[in-house]
Amino acid sequence: MKQWQAYADKFLTITVREQYLILLSGIVVIGFIFFNLLIESQLIKSRQLNKDIIQLSADNKSKNTSIVLFEQALLTDPNAALRQQILTYEAKLSQIDTELLTLTSELIDPIQMRHALLELLDVKKGVSLLSFELIGAKPVVTSSIEKQPQKTGEPQETSSSLSLYRHGIKLKLKGNYFQLRNYLTQLEEMSWTFFWKNFDYKLQKYPMSELEIEMYSLSTEREFIGV
């Protein structure tokens, strides 16, 4: 308090001009302090607003990206992958059908087997048939196909089966090399399809040799030779 009184007394002793200068300086300082406080407050608000604008811009960009992805997803056919799988399976089925058609063309039914055996046993001159053996049917493929039941009142379809059998034939022949070779050529030229399994060639007393061959045919019938 005394200090403040001393300043007041000293103020009264100075000239009026100095008093005005002091008062003006005080007003300027006080005004500057208030102005500075006001500006700083506005700067703080401005910085916060800038941060909010940056955050909103980032959120807006993220939302726009999501919208673009959703639009692309809507333009994409959701069944495209499924259709591609269907096309792949259809191609595989077509290939299987082709293979089955090829295989079917090589099958020999029991009625045809009679004629095939006649050609098979028609040996060339100089070739002797030492033995002939039929090997019992062996199943190669056996599968059942179940058909879907029909509506009530409609005839019911029963399941069916598909079987494939292998019929073996074993021949033992005697002759010289060229005669046996000609007989094998004759077999290859037959219209009936036989598959080779075993082939055993042995040279006996020159020039005679023995040839033992085992081959088989495929058929959907277990019976080997029909009536």
The total of beta strands comes to 4
Could you give the order of strands across the largest sheet? 1-2-4-3
Gross CATH architecture of the largest domain:
2-Layer Sandwich
Q: How many DSSP H or I helices?
A: 5
From the alpha carbons, calculate the radius of gyration and give it in angstroms: 53 Å
The fraction of residues assigned to DSSP E strands is: 15-25%
Helix content: 40-55%
CATH superfamily of the largest domain: Ribosomal protein S6/Translation elongation factor EF1B
| Run of helices and strands | HHHHEEHEE
SSE topology sketch:
Elements: H1 2-13, H2 16-75, H3 80-105, H4 110-120, E1 128-145, E2 160-176, H5 177-188, E3 195-203, E4 208-219
Antiparallel strand pairs: 1-2, 2-4, 3-4
Description:
The chain is α+β, with helices and mostly antiparallel strands. It folds into 2 domains: 1-76; 110-150 and 157-219, Alpha-Beta Plaits (2-Layer Sandwich), CATH 3.30.70.60. Helix content is 53%, strand content 25%. The chain contains 5 helices and 4 strands. It has helices at residues 2-13, 16-75, 80-105, 110-120, 177-188; strands at 128-145, 160-176, 195-203, 208-219. Strands 1-2-4-3 form a 4-stranded antiparallel sheet. A hairpin with a 4-residue loop joins β3 and β4. The radius of gyration is 53 Å and the shape is rod-shaped.
